[in-house]
């Protein structure tokens, strides 16, 4: 008696579900657990939040505040880094 092919499982007698991971280019598979990505997502959200608060509280240069906010939100993390290096007015007296 032969069963279903390797990498599949039988749901019913007639239904077979393919659980085999699909290969990416180069024969690699992408099977990353959410727990591995969650800290990076939280860190990115915290960084964007910090930049948005800083845009609101600090003097900005070269572009209006709303443009810096859009740059920070839509190009994480590069937009925030550029804002902190170029767009923020340097603190005086520190």
Topology:
Elements: E1 8-10, E2 16-18, H1 34-57, H2 65-74, H3 78-87
Antiparallel strand pairs: 1-2
Note down, in words, how this protein is organized.
The chain has 94 residues and is mainly alpha-helical. The chain has helices spanning 34-57, 65-74, 78-87, and strands at residues 8-10, 16-18. The chain is rod-shaped and about 75 Å long. The protein has a domain at 31-94. The protein has 3 helices and 2 strands, in the order ββααα. Helix content is 47%, strand content 6%. α1 packs antiparallel against α2 (65-74) and α2 packs antiparallel against α3. The termini are far apart. The chain has a two-stranded antiparallel sheet.
In short:
The chain has 94 residues and is mainly alpha-helical. The chain has a domain at 31-94. Helix content is 47%, strand content 6%.
User: What spatial form do the alpha-carbon principal axes imply?
Assistant: rod-shaped
Look at the structure and give the mean pLDDT: 82
How would you spell out the order of helices and strands?
EEHHH
Q: Alpha-carbon distance between the termini? A: 79 Å
- Largest β sheet strand count, sense and barrel closure: 2 strands, antiparallel
What percent of residues are in strands? 5-15%
Going across the biggest sheet, name each strand in turn: 1-2
Poorly predicted segments: none
Structural class: mainly alpha
How many β-strands, per DSSP? 2
Estimated helix fraction: 40-55%
What is the overall number of helices?
A: 3
Radius of gyration: 24 Å
């Amino acid at each position: 008696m032969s069963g279903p092919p390797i990498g599949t499982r039988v749901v019913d007698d007639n239904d077979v579900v393919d659980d085999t991971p699909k290969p990416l280019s180069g024969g690699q598979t992408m099977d990353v657990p959410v727990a591995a990505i969650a800290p990076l997502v939280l860190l990115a959200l915290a960084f964007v939040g910090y930049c948005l608060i800083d845009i609101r509280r600090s003097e900005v240069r070269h572009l209006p505040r709303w443009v810096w906010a859009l740059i920070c939100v839509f190009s994480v993390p590069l937009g925030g880094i550029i804002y902190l290096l170029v767009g923020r007015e340097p603190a005086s007296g520190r």
